[in-house]
TrEMBL record:
It comes from Ekhidna lutea. One of its GO terms (molecular function) is alanine racemase activity. Keywords: Isomerase, Pyridoxal phosphate. Pfam families: Ala_racemase_N. GO terms for cellular component: cytosol. This is Predicted amino acid racemase. SUPFAM superfamilies: PLP-binding barrel.
Length: 356
């Protein structure tokens, strides 16, 4: 059975590195846990690091966090669906919002539950995912700040999440100016300007974060140690907090070229034949993991001599080259994971999760 390991010493090292960076720059930060897909063992490791605020995009995951530690502030980081609002108010202390009608529904439910719900207003800065258009922000804020049991505690933005628009000092200055305009017009304090995600962290190292940006939400850099501008591991951080192990269930020397009439496979792929491979063979290994668990595009074999050649729903095929002496049936092959690969693995009920 395939399994994935979380190395708690490496996770702790990355957390402490980031915590020091943010403290040095007088920035508060929260952990984004959506990658962990609500896995209780992994969430406990995150809570044990000492974080007091965790963000997620699934209410069930926030429920798990509250069961593990009621004192952790939970933040729902996408605009809520109407039918989820009763559970949202119960398990999320705060939520990202962009629609007045939704905030009104949250207000009504918060009154019913006798709770105060915090709201972060998301602003559109160019990536065209969620966000209030800047021209409408003042009217939007005025319409929501007097709703009962609603406390507007921040404004924020997301970049690089849909079209890949990268953050810049100018865009963050723009976000900070919106906070200043709100405070000047309404004489009300907005405590948090949450302009930072993992992709913004490199701007801290370049001294390009405006003073007004005082809150970050970090997932990918915590778990993968990546500078998302260079796609390289940040010096002082660990890039392999997680590792996937999959067992070899077959090794056979086979032709490099399939034989027979070819059409699209069940994944809708059509393969092109490399004529240089006619008459050649190689040793092919089949591993006990497949597309049901993860796309092969997000797996990085630790052994550089292994080449991933394809996958079906339940099996991954790798090319071992001209010799099979290095591996035998029953051996484990290890992989580093890209972010979306880890997301698939953690969302699979068929992959065992271990803490090391």
């Amino acid at each position: 059975m395939a399994y994935v390991e979380l190395y708690k010493d490496k996770l702790k090292k990355n957390y402490q590195f980031l915590d020091n960076v943010f403290k040095e720059n007088d920035i508060a930060w929260a952990v984004v846990s959506k990658l962990l897909c609500g896995n209780e063992k992994f969430l406990k490791e995150v809570i044990d690091l000492g974080t007091k605020e965790i963000c997620d995009s699934r209410i069930s995951n926030l429920e798990t966090i509250k069961k593990l530690d009621e004192s952790v502030q939970t933040v729902y980081i996408k605009p809520p669906a109407k039918r989820s609002i009763p559970r949202l108010v119960k398990y999320a202390d705060a939520s990202f919002n962009t629609e007045y009608k939704t905030i009104k529904w949250i207000s009504d439910e918060a009154v019913k539950q006798n709770k105060k719900h915090k709201v972060i207003i998301m602003i559109e800065l160019g990536d065209l995912r969620e966000g209030v258009m800047g021209d409408h922000l003042m009217d939007f804020y005025e319409s929501v700040f007097n709703l009962p049991n609603i406390e507007v505690t921040g404004i924020g933005a997301n970049l690089n999440c849909l079209y890949g628009v990268m953050p810049s000092e100018d865009k963050l200055v723009q976000l900070s100016l919106y906070e200043q305009l709100i405070e000047a017009k309404f004489n009300r304090k907005i405590p948090w300007v949450t302009g930072g995600t993992s992709v913004v962290i490199p701007l801290i190292f370049r001294k390009q974060i405006p003073d007004g940006i005082n809150h970050f939400r970090v997932g990918e850099t915590l778990f993968f140690g990546l500078d998302l501008f260079t796609q390289e591991v940040v010096p002082g951080m660990e890039g392999d907090v997680f590792k996937l192990y999959s067992e070899i269930i077959e090794i056979t020397e086979k032709p490099k070229i399939p034989s027979g009439y070819m059409e699209t496979n069940p994944s809708g792929e059509t393969f092109e034949i490399n004529e240089d491979d006619y008459g050649k063979t190689s040793y092919r290994a089949i591993l006990d993991i497949g597309l049901l668990d993860v796309s092969e595009d997000f797996l990085i074999p630790e052994d550089d001599s292994i080449e991933i050649t394809g996958a079906s729903s339940d099996m991954l095929i790798v090319d071992l080259g001209g010799s099979s002496e290095k591996y035998k049936v029953g051996d484990l092959v290890s992989f580093k994971l890209k972010y979306m690969g880890a997301l698939g693995i953690f969302n699979s009920d068929y992959i065992e999760k271990r803490v090391v």
